[in-house]
Design goal:
Order of helices and strands: EEEEHHEEEHEEEEHEEEEEHE
Helix content: 10-25%
Structural class: alpha+beta
Distance between the termini: 27 Å
Number of helices: 5
Number of strands: 17
Shape: globular
Radius of gyration: 18 Å
């Protein structure tokens, strides 16, 4: 799925010694994070927020490692600085034995995409874990620049394959009440925008009550779901999408850390 510009793995048992082969760690017990790098300089967007969440997950998994900006600089900083213009994702993954770091370009996607609903409950959805093989399989079957995978379980929508979802009804913002990973991009955007976001169960049978569905994630920022053909849902407005898109741009300009 990804063409890595940089890919390295390190042994935790041998004081982060470089391994000869890169190990992406997909399908293993572990966690990861994907940090956007955007701009003319290597500006890591929301770096402290991403690392705080990742380190908390590593602690809860008993991995005994803490990632700091200085450690990122030590491991990959010099190579990242060779890039001229940035629109990339730095992926950091850990399974307790190995730390893997890779860099790829962010997917250039349309602002308006088509949604496809899949009935699937992610394992340990509270953490951004490495049990992603089913999701990667879903995504491999679509053009991700023009489409979005929407996950549901027990007739209730939870999240996108790699994104959070915001639902708009009468100019009020809603996110699912439970059953999803609470992403860092959503956290950062909530801190930036002035709109209150409410939690409620988002039922498939009630989709037509919502005028907009907005997808948010580190890989492509903020996009709008244009339609969901298999549920006969169509977007009725783009009003809140435009406002959240502007809020995202403001957040990016304020929340960066240069390595």
């Amino acid at each position: 799925m990804a063409n890595n510009l940089l890919a390295k793995s390190y042994s935790l048992k041998n004081n982060l010694s470089l391994l000869s082969l890169f190990k992406p760690l997909w399908g293993q017990r572990g966690v990861f994070t994907s940090i956007p790098i955007i701009g003319k300089n290597p500006n890591f967007i929301g770096l402290q927020t991403y690392l705080k969440t990742f380190n908390k997950s590593c602690k809860e998994y008993n991995f005994g490692i803490t990632i700091t900006p200085n450690l990122i600089q030590k491991l990959v900083g010099n190579e990242i600085k060779k890039i001229k213009t940035y629109n990339h994702l730095l992926r950091i993954a850990c399974n307790g034995k190995t730390l893997s770091i890779s860099l790829r370009k962010r997917i250039r996607t349309q602002d308006s995409v088509i949604g496809f609903i899949k009935n699937y409950k992610r394992r340990d959805f509270i953490h951004k874990n490495l049990y992603y093989k089913t999701l990667l399989k879903f995504m491999s079957k679509i053009d991700y620049t023009q489409n979005e995978i929407i996950l549901s379980r027990d007739n209730e929508i939870t999240e996108g394959a790699v994104t959070n979802l915001i639902f708009v009804k009468s100019n009020t913002l809603y996110i699912p009440k439970e059953g999803y990973y609470y992403g860092n991009t959503l956290k950062l955007l909530q801190d930036e925008i002035k709109f209150k976001i409410h939690k409620k169960k988002i039922l498939l049978e009630d989709l037509n009550e919502y005028s907009e569905i907005i997808s948010i994630g580190s890989g492509r920022g903020v996009i709008s779901i244009n339609s969901i053909p298999n549920r006969a849902w169509k977007r009725k407005s783009s009003k809140m999408f435009v406002k959240l898109k502007e809020g995202y741009k403001d957040m990016v300009n304020k929340n960066y850390y240069e390595i």
